[in-house]
Design brief:
single chain, Heat Shock Protein 90, 5-stranded parallel sheet, 13 helices, 59% helix, binds adenosine-5'-triphosphate, binds magnesium ion
Length: 480
């Protein structure tokens, strides 16, 4: 950087000797510098503060405060501390020179004055002074720039923070809206699913119910009549042991002994089958109870049992696996005020998930064995010691908190950490397209929490199994 050196300057000469003042003033004025004069220390300080000269030439010995004291006070004053001070001292006074320099003076000139030397020294210090001033002003500019930039940066940071906060708020609002939307969607699907399924099932059950009851009622009579015919025939046999040829021929043809033995059995199995059909219809009607809008005291166990009866076909053995065993450990429960239809739907979802998990466990197991026969034997969890799928249902009433607890545990595939973490998301499923919608648990949670003021929780271990726990407070304890 090429800074032009200004040789103009204002010089304050401080001396109590008029001769010295005159000589110096003339010499310096000839050079075009502006000259200020003070004849004692006090005057020098006052002038320096007022006029801010570029250099002060300061005599040591003066009446009043001497040059050293004046120098000290000038250096202590923030207005004058930067003005270079040159002491004027006699050639022999070495001690004064050293003391002056130690007090902050930049140089000294000796008396009697050597003109050329005085001019050279003043010129040099003026140049330094001017350069320093320029540097200071540059520095100030730079500092101002830095301050400006810092201010802009702070403003930017504040704006960024505000923006981030707004984005965060917006994101929060959006995710809440999405949540609400998904909840509403789940509720809609649930209502839709329930009403369509419920209506269908209730309709079919109702239609089948009448003929089945009709058959069941008549079967009693039919078996009684059959028994009467058999008794009557036995009497005939007793009193007419040798019937006409044509009758005997018919008796042989129809194998009457087998007929008499088998007919009551046929009647009995028809009765059992129809009775079972009637039970199934009862369960279906119970399961799809359309009275969803009001709570009513229900027998929770009956709800579970009727749901299991409907799922019977899924529990049976198939080519892939043996029958799924149901273990019931029912406690004593009072009638619980519930929405029966939706509650049964929860049982249905949890049982269906448990069955799926058990089936998946079989698939995983057989794949592992097929692919890695050696590893499989040692590392892969086998369903249970007897190699059976099991669903355990425990119910209990927690007396103190008046909460009904229903636990449904399976020994199926279990859940990994990542599945567990995503379980509260509606539409989350690990099942293939067409098999799972990922709505079962969301719907169940909504039914338990929103309709019954309860909770739905779970524990699960990969390859060990899963236990879901429904807690429903008795009506008096419900807070929504
Ligand atoms: N008992 C369980 N054992 C292991 N994983 C389970 C169990 N219950 C639920 N899951 C996991 O939770 C996921 C979500 O279950 P959810 O019932 O909500 O939906 P889904 O069964 O996949 O589909 P659907 O809508 O037909 O019920 C399942 O895909 C499965 O990965
Ligand atoms: Mg499911």
């Amino acid at each position: 950087m090429n800074i032009p050196v200004l040789e103009t300057g204002v010089i304050l000469i401080v001396d109590d000797n008029p001769n010295n003042l005159e000589v110096l003033s003339e010499t310096l004025m000839d050079r075009g510098w502006e000259i200020l004069i003070a004849v004692n220390g006090e005057g020098a300080i006052a002038q320096a503060e007022y006029a801010c000269p570029d250099i002060i030439l300061l005599d040591v010995m003066m009446p009043g405060i001497d040059g050293f004291t004046a120098c000290q006070r000038l250096k202590l004053n923030p207005v004058t501390c930067d003005i270079p001070i040159i002491f004027m001292t006699a050639l022999s006074e070495t001690v004064d020179k050293v003391k002056g320099l130690s007090l902050g003076a930049v140089d000294y000139i000796t008396k009697p004055f050597e003109h050329e030397e005085v001019l050279a020294r003043i010129k040099t210090h003026l140049q330094i002074r001017n350069l320093t001033k320029q540097l200071q002003s540059h520095n100030q500019q730079l500092q101002q720039e830095i301050a400006d930039r810092l201010a802009v940066e702070t403003k930017l940071q504040k704006l960024t923070q505000e923006l981030e906060q707004r984005v965060e708020e917006r994101t929060f609002q959006l995710s809440q809206a999405l949540d609400n939307f998904q909840q509403a969607q789940v509720r809609l699907v649930q209502q839709e699913k329930m009403s369509t399924l419920g209506e269908l099932v209730a309709g079919i059950a109702h239609e089948i119910n009448n003929p089945v009851n009709f058959i069941l009622g008549n079967l009693n009579h039919a078996s009684e009549y059959t028994q009467n015919f058999i008794d009557l025939f036995k009497l005939y046999q007793q009193y007419y042991p040798n019937p006409e040829g044509e009758i005997q021929q018919k008796i042989d043809e129809i194998d009457i002994d087998f007929l008499m033995q088998d007919s009551p059995q046929i009647m009995s199995s028809m009765y059992k089958g129809t009775k079972r059909l009637a039970q199934m219809i009862h369960s279906l009607r119970h399961f799809s109870r359309r009275d969803d809008s009001v709570v009513q005291p229900i027998d929770i166990h009956e709800g579970i049992d009727s749901t299991l009866l409907i799922l019977q076909y899924r529990l049976k053995a198939n080519s892939e696996r043996s029958e799924i065993q149901i273990i019931k450990d029912y406690g004593t429960l009072p009638p619980v005020e519930c929405f029966p239809g939706p509650l049964n739907q929860v049982f249905m979802n949890l049982f269906a998930n448990a069955i799926d998990a058990i089936e998946e466990s079989f698939v995983t197991r057989s794949n592992s064995i097929a692919n890695f026969p050696k590893i499989a034997a040692s590392n892969i969890h086998l369903l249970s010691v007897e190699n059976k799928g099991q669903i355990t249902i425990r119910t209990a009433l927690h007396q103190q908190s008046s909460v009904v607890i229903i636990k449904i545990a399976d020994n199926g595939i279990g859940m990994t950490e990542s599945v567990k973490q995503r379980l509260s998301e509606p539409m989350f499923t690990t099942k293939p397209v067409g098999k799972g919608t990922g709505l079962g648990l969301s719907i169940s949670r909504q039914i338990i929490e929103e309709k019954h003021g309860g909770t739905l929780s779970f524990v699960s271990e990969p390859r060990q199994g899963t236990e879901f726990c429904i807690e429903i407070p008795l009506l008096s304890q419900r807070h929504f």
